[in-house]
Amino acid sequence: MKNKQPGNKKVPDFKEMTDRVIAEPANGPQLVIKTNLDPSDATEENPYFNNDQITDSEQFKEYFKE
Q1: How far apart are CA 65 and CA 44, in angstroms?
Q2: Where are the alpha helices (DSSP H) in the chain?
Q3: Which of 3, 7, 50, 62 has the fewest Cβ atoms surrounding its Cβ within 10 A?
């Protein structure tokens, strides 16, 4: 029986890719602070919200709600 190797043969090995930066995980806890400069609506200026795609905005807002 042949050993199956999943994946696309045309995609380079992950270790050979030079256009990505992989950061090491943080050694300690991270601190995220919400300020008065943050928009009140989670969909404004949010890179995780795409207006061109169908996104459940209510569920999205609930996720980012305090």
Answers
A1: 13
A2: 57-64
A3: 3
pLDDT along the chain (66 residues), means of 10: 68 75 79 80 71 67 71
Please report which helix (H) or strand (E) contains residue 59, including its range.
Answer: helix 57-64
Domain ranges of the chain: 28-65
| pTM higher than 0.85 | no
* Three-class secondary structure of residue 30 per DSSP: coil
Tokens for 19?
């256009």
Which single residue is written with the structure tokens 């995780």?
48
